[in-house]
Design a protein that fits this description.
The complex is a heterodimer of chains A (about 250) and B (about 375). With about 250 residues, chain A is α/β, with parallel strands linked by helices. Chain A contains ten helices and ten strands. Chain A has two domains: about 160 residues, Rossmann fold, CATH 3.40.50.300; about 80 residues, no CATH class. A six-stranded mixed beta sheet of chain A has the order 6-7-8-3-9-10, sandwiched between helices. Chain A has a four-stranded antiparallel beta sheet with strand order 2-1-4-5, covered by helices on one side. In chain A, α3 packs across α5 and α3 packs parallel to α6. The longest helix of chain A is centred in the C-terminal third of the chain and has 14 residues. The radius of gyration of chain B is 22 Å and the shape is globular. Chain B has a two-stranded antiparallel sheet. Chain B has two domains: about 325 residues, no CATH class; about 40 residues, no CATH class. Chain B is built from 16 helices and two strands. By secondary structure, chain B is mostly helical. The longest helix of chain B has 27 residues. The chains are: A alpha/beta (about 250), B mainly alpha (about 375). The complex binds adenosine-5'-diphosphate and magnesium ion.
């Protein structure tokens, strides 16, 4: 790999992944700045989730490079990528149903990540303060001792976001964070995202255009593994190629 | 103080269950049973180590091992090798063609003690070996499996296969292992007659204290962040991985710890029963251990002990009168538990135990303070 360093938080270059010859992501170039909230949209099967899978190491790329703060991620294991400062929310809420909200956040707290560290981990003042701080941000401070399994769908989405926030990642990736949320919950989530993109980069995948309009600094449209259009929301919405893909044939 | 209370005992309810178990095995059984039957219970309690190990590994860790007999056997054989060497002093074996080696080696025309037997003449080495060798073996298996993300049914089958291979190896290498008969005719431990009633009594108590100690250590693990991570991994392994944890390391550790616990049980088995043989290593004992844990409740360390006792009492009672029926009965019981009472005895106690404790409390309240009958639900936690 060439060592062409950049100022970007995330720099994806010539990224391709092929599943038995089918290129789910095809020669993708993509850059993300600090403090930027970038939304990726695109029809189902466009390869949006796969891009996140590639960044966080869940899927190995066929070729290309992913640089996070100028560090190559494609060769790192999943947990090492997380420890570099990349957090990822899954498309379906992925929380620990049998644990309480507090325990969910505690398990995600970025200390005691080794076997022996976790055996000796103490729930001290600093941990509890951080947990309460995060719980407040994600509007679950009243539900600390509730088992996560009984939370509403929207609350589960927030909890998972909180589990990432507690690790203070430099890059936060959210796969369809408002799916299944009520109108009010969507508004609250938009507010939350606008707050948490301070000091970090946020990459969001979303379908709901109204929601995208409210949060996005920049939008990229993905189609068949390739970038169809990119820019601010208005430009992208007017782009005839985008209109064609979205409004039919 | 509060640390010990919460972490090691699991709070008030955990402490109650722990104390009841301690009273039962340390006081009630010795008072009620003659020394033959007490020794029998002592033998059952050595299986409880393996059942407890399965609560950690399977109940909490979500990884079913069908090969805990491997580790029970390694611990048992390590102890048996030490005792056998002591029983095979040149004076004791003067009539053999090669005096000073175990009798079965002499029968198999060995003329020299194999190199891997040598260190087992040291008691210290043997004790370390009982704790370390099974853990090391588990580490090798665990690394090979968990780093490659092999789990679930595949892991269960592979552990089962290893148990079979080990049994075949032990049976086949008669000269080195004593073959199908195992290592028998064990007599003394550092000169102390282990076959006497007084020795057996002492081993019974040592075994009880070790078992209670293992339960406390396991409780510590389960109440730590490690314990919550185990539950988290069982539920959403990917979420744990993508929260920055190397999931395989946690599975390897709990597998090694479970191996060591089982090995302690095996070593205590050898001491109390006076021999070790491949019939405690293979498929059948390994599966029985799983049944003990399942019947007792795979999420309950203490339940696993009761499950072990119950099944073994049943086995002894039934197999005397209807030996051929027992296997079917146990199989049926296992299926019934898995289908209808997934949390075993501990689950039943959790769901219905308060009927008993309520009644007990209300009877007590009649005498103590008739005015304030409080409703109490004592639940055995873990
Ligand atoms: N692991 C995989 N193996 C084979 N095909 C896959 C895999 N992951 C994704 N795909 C395919 O790649 C395409 C893109 O999927 P995805 O990234 O989930 O789309 P979306 O944009 O809806 O999130 C789909 O056609 C999907 O079937
Ligand atoms: Mg998707």
């Amino acid at each position: 790999m060439l060592t062409n360093n950049t100022d970007y938080t995330l720099a994806i270059e010539d990224l391709t992944v092929s599943f038995d010859g089918f290129k789910a992501v095809d020669n993708l170039n993509f850059y993300l700045d600090k403090n930027e909230l970038h939304v990726v949209i695109g029809p189902n099967g466009a390869g949006k989730t796969t891009v996140l899978d590639l960044i966080c190491g869940k899927t190995k790329s066929t070729s290309g490079s992913i640089k996070f703060l100028n560090k190559e991620l494609t060769k790192l294991s999943e947990h090492a990528i997380v420890r570099e400062g990349v957090g990822r929310k899954f498309q379906t809420p992925s929380i620990y149903e049998n644990l309480t909200v507090l325990e969910n956040l505690e398990v995600s707290y970025p200390r005691g990540r080794g076997v022996f560290g976790s055996l000796l981990f103490k729930r001290d003042q600093a941990v509890m303060e951080k947990i309460y701080d995060i719980a407040q941000q994600i509007m679950l401070d009243e539900e600390m001792h509730t088992e996560a399994g009984v939370l509403s769908h929207g609350q589960k989405q927030w909890l998972e976001i909180g589990m990432l926030l507690i690790q203070d990642p430099q890059l936060l990736m959210l796969d369809e964070p408002v799916a299944g949320m009520s109108v009010k919950e969507r508004e609250q989530t938009a507010e939350l995202l606008n707050k948490i993109c301070q000091g970090r980069s946020v990459l969001v995948i979303e379908h709901d255009m109204e929601f995208v309009e409210r949060i996005a600094h920049k939008v990229t449209v993905l189609h068949q593994g390739k970038i169809l259009a990119a820019g601010d929301m208005e430009t992208v919405q007017k782009d005839p190629k985008v209109v064609e893909v979205y409004l039919g044939h | 103080m509060s640390f010990a209370y919460d972490k090691l005992m699991g709070g008030k309810n955990g402490l109650t269950g722990f104390i009841i178990l301690a009273i039962l095995i340390l006081i009630v059984f010795p008072l009620l049973l003659d020394s033959f039957r007490l020794n029998l219970v002592g033998k059952y309690l050595t299986y409880a180590f393996a059942a407890v190990s399965l609560v950690l590994l399977w109940g909490y860790g979500g990884t079913l091992s069908l090969g805990q007999g491997i580790f029970f056997g390694l611990g048992g054989y390590a102890m048996a090798m030490f005792l056998k060497l002591e029983a095979s002093s040149p004076e004791n074996t003067a009539i053999q063609s090669t005096p000073g080696i175990p009798d079965f080696m002499d029968w198999n025309q060995l003329t020299e003690l194999p190199w891997f037997w040598e260190p087992f003449s040291s008691f210290t080495f043997t004790l370390v070996a009982i704790l370390v060798i099974p853990a090391l073996f588990a580490y090798i298996i665990g690394s090979a499996m968990f780093k490659r993300r092999v789990g679930g049914v595949y892991f269960a089958i592979i552990t089962q296969v290893i148990a079979v291979i080990l049994t075949v190896l032990i049976v086949g290498q008669q000269g080195f292992t004593g073959g199908i008969n195992g290592i028998t005719d064990l007599r003394t431990l550092n000169g102390w007659d282990i076959t006497s009633d007084s020795a057996k009594n002492i081993f019974y108590y040592v075994n009880c204290f070790l078992l209670l100690g293992v339960i406390i250590a396991s409780r510590y693990i389960l109440t730590s962040k490690f314990g919550r991570l185990l539950l988290a991994m069982r539920d959403k392994e990917d979420r744990v991985r993508f929260s920055g944890y190397d999931v395989a390391n946690f599975k390897i550790f709990i597998f090694c710890f479970a191996a060591t616990i089982s090995a302690i049980g095996g070593a205590m088995f050898t001491l109390q029963v006076g021999f070790m043989s491949p019939s405690f290593v293979g498929i059948v004992p390994s599966i029985e251990m799983v049944i003990f844990a399942a019947v007792g409740g795979r999420m309950s360390l203490i339940g696993a002990v009761y499950g072990t006792l119950l099944i073994n009492f049943g086995k002894t009672a039934f197999s005397e009168s209807f030996p051929e029926l027992w296997l079917f009965l146990m199989g049926g019981l296992f299926i019934a538990v898995v289908m209808f009472f997934p949390n075993g005895l501990a689950g039943l106690w959790q769901d219905y135990g308060h009927y008993i404790t309520d009644r007990f409390k209300s009877v007590k309240n009649l005498f103590v303070k008739p005015a304030s009958a409080t409703k109490a639900t004592t639940v055995e936690n873990s």
